[in-house]
Amino acid sequence: MKFEDLLLEIDGFGKFQILILFILCLPRMNLPMHFLLHNFLAATPSHHCAIPHQEAFVNLTTEEVLLISIPREPDGTFKSCEMFSQPQFHLLLNSSLQPENNSIIQQCQHGWVYDHSQFTSTISTQWDLVCEQRGLNQATATFFFIGVTMGAVVFGYLSDRFGRKAMLLLALVCAVIFGMLSAASVSYSMLAITRTLTGVALSGVSLIVLPLGMEWVDVEHRTFSGILTSMFWSIGNMLLAAVAYLVREWRWLLVAVTGPCLLSIVCLWWVPESARWLIANGKVKRARRHLLRCARMNGRKDFAVSPEALEKMILWSKMLQDLFIHLSCRTPVLRKISLCSGTLWFGVAFSYYGMSMNLTGFGLNMYLSQFVFGFIEIPAKMIMYVLVNRVGRRQSQAWALILTGLCIGANIVIPKRKILFLAIMGKGFSEAAFTTAFLYTCELYPTVLRQNGMGYSSFMARLGGALAPLVFLLDEVWTSLPEVTYCGVAVCCGLVAFLLPETLHVRLPEVSSILPSTWSLLREAGNIPLRRP
Q1: Dihedral pair phi/psi, residue 114, rounded to 5°
Q2: 24 near 217, Cβ under 8 Å?
Q3: Which helix (H) or strand (E) holds 290?
């Protein structure tokens, strides 16, 4: 008997599964509030060099002081990072004149003055992360995603070793601790370290939530469950816009987005450990108890499973686990899956965060852009729910990512008035690619390697997420270079998806579908009677 057969007997999508999925949606909804927090945490308001007071300025207005102290851009706005070494009083007579001698222009010497009409404070204004320090501002997001990258490796191993639920609880507790420490940071270095550690913790949440729910759901409802769970990411996206609009001070904003983790910790009490994991690790009594509880809640009171039947599953899993891990990189099928899925995830995350962290480039205020970008994800997920079941996972995954790249690339040549439409379409495609990637990857790896496979894929995704913010710095080389980079990576990685196998209407892989040669080896062992599933 296989685990899917047990799920059919206890109802693979009843009240029990629905309760688990909705509880796990709470931490899922909280994730984008941290993953996209950089948009507001490190926002840079308009600013100019601070001008020291002089006696000659007594009778001048603030506008006149700026006029004689700060050079202008070609569009007439004051430059953000430069000032005159000496006041240019002749500009009071004719403001259109600009000094021809650049030697009188220097970098800001006395700090900066910021426009606080939109933000009370951000980390940019707190530690002057502008002009020459602009790179440190962008690096804050990179530090966070470096932590997420490390967390994918750490929690991928730990959740397979010690269980999904226990490690999810540990990840949530750590997220609360390091999130609050981030809000209390007294220096940029402390913020960078605590945000990195917060990323490690939240990576565990992101990595475990989906498989923990999916491993309780039958094949028929697997797609629906994945789409439903991802819907709450989009809701969290929209909630971030509302929270950031209401909380304009960066420290309290961190507290506001970290607090919901406490509710997730409390609700996790009602979530059982994955029965798949329990069986694979020889914990028969706990697995049987959870299966019977599931059957009762789903109205299957006549369900019964003997410990002997579960012990056969354990024997089967133990025989396969070491063999799978030993052969996973030596077997062409799994080697190909690993290389292609890693490349795919890098491209998905790189393009998604590249678009999500560019809220000011589309003509709307950043709060409305954040809300619209979150809202468009919902119809994108609904469309993907239909497509992945009609045209398959592979085609849906590949074309969603390719179209994301094309939308980004089109921004270079399309008139400004149409950029917003393209940006919204591109954001929808990028979310469709992300949603499909979660579902697709879960279906590509066998049970004993699934969490390791998700950990590896998440590692590659977070690597893409870590590099995405830094690409914006390339605009100093060529204004359109960031868009060209995002476009090229998305299209190339989308093409790689065509190399992966289709998983539509296929059982979650456990044995022979991934390593057919392994089947022959086990049959030759002759220790137990084996029947191909």
Answers
A1: -110, 150
A2: no
A3: helix 284-297
How many other C-beta atoms are found inside a 10 Å radius of the C-beta of residue 375? Answer: 18
Of 34-48, 312-326, 466-480, least confident by mean pLDDT is 312-326
Dihedral angle computed from the Cα positions of residues 452, 453, 454 and 460, in that order, rounded to the nearest 10 degrees = 110
Pairing of strands 82-84, 47-49: unpaired
pLDDT greater than 90 at residue 207: no
231-249 tens-digit pLDDT: 898 999 999 999 999 999 9
Q: Token pair of 426, please?
A: 């591109």
Residue 425, both tokens: 């379409």
3-state secondary structure at position 207: helix
Give the Cα separation of 226 and 214 in Å (integer). 7
**Alpha carbons 204 and 107: distance in angstroms, whole number:** 43
pTM of the model as a whole: 0.83
- Phi then psi for 397, rounded to 5 degrees? -65, -50
C-alpha distances (whole Å) from 57 to each of 48, 68, 269, 297 are: 17, 10, 66, 78
Give dist(CA 338, CA 336) in Å, integer.
Answer: 5
Q: Quick: pLDDT tens for 267-307.
A: 999 999 988 888 877 788 888 888 888 888 888 877 777 76
Spatial CA neighbour of 380 closest among 414, 431, 443, 448:
431
